Automatic annotation (TrEMBL):
Residues 207-343 form the Rubisco accumulation factor 1 C-terminal domain. It holds the Pfam family Raf1_N. GO terms for cellular component: cytoplasm. This is RuBisCO accumulation factor 1. It comes from the Bacteria. Has 3 domains, the N-terminal alpha-helical domain, an extended flexible linker and the C-terminal beta-sheet domain. The 2 C-terminal beta-sheet domains are swapped and pack against each other to form the dimer interface. The keyword Transferase does not apply. A major RuBisCO chaperone. Acts after GroEL-GroES chaperonin to fold and/or assemble the large subunit of RuBisCO (ccbL, rbcL). Cooperates with RbcX in RbcL folding, plays the major role in assembly of dimers into RbcL(8)-Raf1(8) intermediate complexes. RbcS replaces Raf1, leading to holoenzyme formation. Residues 17-75 form the Rubisco accumulation factor 1 helix turn helix domain. Residues 90-193 form the Rubisco accumulation factor 1 alpha-helical domain. It is found in: Cytoplasm. Belongs to the RAF family. The gene is raf1. It comes from Microcystis aeruginosa NIES-298. Residues 14-195 are annotated as: N-terminal alpha-helix.
Length: 359
């Protein structure tokens, strides 16, 4: 076995780890003990796959009993009696696992209800969700209380009012009566037997989900050195930006100016790019009939001369962009990646105003 402790507090000896593995292999104790031992091994840095190979506890099973054991411990902290704890040691780890989404107080109430009604895992999932949703209501209907049984009854009452199908409506009424705790909640459920008015169902709108598909959609943020003329110091002292994938998050300094550029291949491949605002009439070759401000992207890492590229160089204490037909004897500050011209907009107002068409 290979030990990879995550922290000093979680570190265990090889001997202790071997003993834990042996105990799990022979399934000593109950599922709560197993979950605690699996968690101790995982926190000490042992991979769940290695634990499976040594003990036979599959990865999904490890996760279930670890989480269920944590829920069990929260029941103890909430003052659960011995009968309730014994019921869940039963084993009913799968039921407690479904209660993980609830807070400590809600777990105790839900656990008592599930034990009282002898709830199995499939229904436990629905119960936990109903209690969680009920707790989020800013104001509950006067017929219902905060008791977990009333929380489930409320969900049945609400859904029952939306059903036209009498068979489905009857199932919800029966379920609501099974769990209703207060007399007022029971009366609200029973009222559905006489009142067949259907409340329209309001479905939640679709989430506005988009997935990035093309590299062009992955913008790259590049630090801006400044506006021409710039100095060698400006070039060298502009801080590089670190990018955090997959959404290309960038953290910038207080006074740092940045510019977003499309995710073109040349931009994404750049190792240490910086941008400089530059007048087009100061370029080595003409690109326009009239002068305009363009954006140079320079990769500072690429400082080796190549006849096919342009370079930002230091000459006579100034910075210029040049091409060389042979290896130069000047300091190369970086290679030109691309020159970006501003979008040519004939009428900027057309962007924000609705289209107008002649009849």
């Amino acid at each position: 076995m290979t030990e990879q402790p995550r922290s000093t507090d979680d570190r265990i000896s090889e001997t202790e780890a071997t003993e834990l593995m042996r105990s799990l292999l022979h399934k000593e104790g109950n599922w709560v003990n197993w979950g605690q031992k699996c968690q101790k091994l995982q926190k000490a840095g042992y991979d769940s796959q290695l634990i499976f190979e040594q003990t036979g506890f599959q990865n999904a099973q490890q996760n279930l009993i670890i989480v269920a054991a944590q829920v069990f411990e929260s029941l103890i902290k909430s003052g659960a009696d011995e009968d309730l704890l014994s019921y869940y040691i039963g084993p009913r780890s799968d039921v407690l696992y479904e209660l993980r989404i609830l807070n400590q107080e809600q777990r105790l109430g839900a656990a008592k209800l599930a034990a009282e009604k002898r709830i199995e895992v499939a229904e436990a999932h629905d119960i936990a969700k109903a209690i969680q949703d009920f707790s989020r209501l800013s104001q509950i209907p006067s017929e219902f209380t905060r008791h977990p049984g009333d929380a489930i009854a409320y969900q049945c009452w609400k859904r029952g009012k939306q059903k036209r199908d009498l068979a489905e409506r009857a199932k919800l009424i029966a379920k609501g009566l099974k769990f209703a705790h207060s007399d007022s909640a029971r009366q609200a459920i029973e009222s559905l037997l006489q009142d067949f008015t259907v409340t329209p169902t309001r479905s939640a709108p679709l989430l506005p989900v988009h997935r990035l598909q093309d590299e062009d959609e992955l913008a790259r943020i590049i630090p801006l050195v400044g506006r021409f003329p710039v100095t060698v110091t400006d070039i060298k002292h502009t801080e590089s930006l670190s990018v955090e994938e997959p959404f290309r998050l960038v953290t910038v300094g207080d006074k740092q100016t940045i510019v977003p550029l499309p995710g073109w291949q040349a931009i994404l491949k750049a190792i240490d790019p910086v941008a400089i605002l530059w007048p087009s009439d100061q370029l080595p070759r003409s690109i326009a009939t009239r002068s305009e401000e363009v954006l140079l992207v320079i990769d500072r890492v690429l400082a080796e001369w190549d006849v096919n590229n342009y370079y930002l160089v230091e000459r006579d204490n100034s910075v210029s962009l040049q091409w060389f037909d042979s290896s130069p004897d000047v300091t190369i500050l970086g290679e030109l990646i691309l020159i970006l011209r501003a979008k040519n907009i004939l009428d900027e107002n057309n962007i924000t105003e609705p289209w107008q068409m002649d009849d």
